[in-house]
Amino acid sequence: QVKSCHLSAALLGEDSEISQEQLYELLKYAALGKCHNAAQPSWCRIYHQSHLAGVVVVVLHEMSQLHFYRFYLQFKHLRRVFRHRFTLAPSANFPVSLYGEGTNLKPQNTPQGLTSTSSECITKSSDLQCDPIIQRYGEKKQGLTSYTLTLEEQKKNDYPIEGSPGCKGYISTECDQQRTDSSPLFGLDCEMCLTAKGNEVTRVSLVDARGQCLLNELVKPESTVVNYRTRFSGITRKMLLPVKTRLSDIQTRLKKMLPHDAVLVGHSLNSDLQALEMIHPSVIDTSLLFARSEGRRFKLKFLAKAVLGKEIQCEQKLGHDPTEDARAALELAQFFIEQGPTKVAQLNLEMLLTAEKLAEVSQNKAVLQPQGCGFQEQLNEPPPLSKPCFLDCLQVTGQKPLLLGRQGSDSSGLCQSNLSTSNKQILQRALEDVPLSKFSIIQFSLGPEYLASHLHAGLHEKVRSKLTDMLTIYAGPFEENFCMKSVKKEFGRCGPIQSLTVVTETFQPYVCIQYEVLEAAQLAVECLNGAEVAGSCIKVQRPVTAAMLDCNVLIKELELDVENEGVIYVAGLKKSLTETDLQEEFSQLKDLETLFLPKDLQSGKHRNCCFLKFQKTQSAVDAREAINGWTMKGSQLRSRNALAPGHLWRWIWQMNHSNGKQGKHIFYEKMEQHLSDSEQDLRKRVKKLDQHIKKLHRSLQNNTLCVVLFPGVNSTHGSQPGLGLMGIKDDEGRSAC
């Protein structure tokens, strides 16, 4: 049964802007797992990464968060399918930040003119037959019992053997040889000091198959220590002074801890067992597992870096960490068993070792170079090694990334095609080739005629203007000498107010209120229209403009947005309440998952509203009904369904506080006619683009991570943040978190 992959990301709040480095972090881990220094991203978590069917990244070239919300109704598929969104910081060179520095992928023009990948760094099939790993184990993947040392191999490599003359007095773990491919693995490593007797154990570490430390114990040697070997062992005289544990104690503990079919894993494990004076029948020795010719062996430090991407035995540390070494050996064995000999041989470890040594020589030469060397001599030096791109690492492990795009839409040279290539042609190639690739980058574009910076600036003004109208309500009429304080208090119970002014152009006074969040404005319309405020029965409405004619449709779609499922908005809170206070007050609500208390992004002060996210949609409905009418610390609460995710909340705030919010710049007025002429066609193109992504998404296998990126824009008219949508496709066709 295939385990289901899923994402976990807590980005409900306004601090959900993701940097290009964090995005790279996610894609690298999704593509490589724990290999090549790929770690779980810091801002979200992928569960069961090894079961991912693939990774597909869709890049919408030269588009930003602005495009998504300007054409929100047209992006019907994107807003309904992808459960998680995040603001993406714009980058001066998006391709480099996405693919990583040092990428060696240089696609050629293929007959179709769309994509190609280089495979020069992949070991050829014919070369694999000569690899010592293939010669020893064959090409097929096997169970762990195929990699345990035979009795003859143990004798040959100086392992303690039952009945051998040199093993008198040695303690047996009493484990039998009835091991299977399901037998548990344990990583073991010891540190030794030189005593009058010889090498004696001074520290022992044992880790289980999950890498959890079961034993990490200092041991008092029986004989006088001659050399602590602190540089390697990390052991000092001071550390051993209070230690009471003896070797016999460790032997007893190990016998109790190891099950009858335990398989011990270590690097040159014979030395550890000799020092422990113990005999164990089932062992995997990683110094022999990763076979080399002529009896040579790779060092553990090198294998950890080349295979796992982990730095161990760092020079900054005092001595080796036996737990770290035991865990590294264990993970190396697990990698070998899971990937099989062919994948390991394709890593071409000999080549990587040679490259590492050359780099060290080059670095040492640079350090030792005397001052005053001529410029010409520097030109003859080899270029510095660049940081490896994870796409290069993919190729080294035998996985060919797929890159599809349009010529002129990417300055990186990664995606080349004929000028006539359209989004439709790219989609057709993607439908054919994506199932054959573990990692794909598909780039669509609206076309060069829609990427001009002045058009982008015009879109910005239109979106800013519409958002301002949606955040604004008019209320009245009031009596001539109405109490402004009462009005502000009543409307403030709906949410944080940006501004409140009196409209004097009317026969009777009205007020114009601009809120900071969409939910507050909507709540005011729903709760206070027809209510009595400051002694008057008032009408509450939004501005009536051409752009606002579809406001109700937009509000409804925002409410149904997949990212707002199970999220409600609560207003009327006292600003003195802390997040801890609110957690306590709302603790009685069933299935409450997250509480987000917005802050003013300038002052850092809490607002008088919050968002509550529930595990189940029905629990959110029940909570909303219960909260309406609640009194908390003397303040009556109001609640409704959420409309704006955290990243949109931040964006609205920035637009409200951007320069030029008081009126249109003459620059925008001059191009309004041009915008209205082109925007109708642009809507059609966006709708078609959404349909392309829908078709591509439907064709993906379940458990495929899909990330859609609006990269953001940097132009002379300012920068626009990007937007990311992501999820792992599930059985229902959604990209779930």
From TrEMBL:
UniProt keyword RNA-binding present: yes
Keyword Nuclease assigned: yes
GO cellular component, one term: nucleus
Domain named RRM: residues: 471-545, 566-644
Pfam family membership, one: RNase_T
Domain of life according to the entry: Eukaryota
InterPro entries documented for this protein: Nucleotide-bd_a/b_plait_sf (IPR012677), RBD_domain_sf (IPR035979), REX1-like_exo (IPR034922), REXO1/3/4-like (IPR047021), Ribonucl_H (IPR013520), RNaseH-like_sf (IPR012337), RNaseH_sf (IPR036397), RRM_dom (IPR000504)
Keywords, in A-Z order: Exonuclease, Hydrolase, Nuclease, RNA-binding
MF (Gene Ontology): exonuclease activity; RNA binding
Protein known as: REXO5 exonuclease
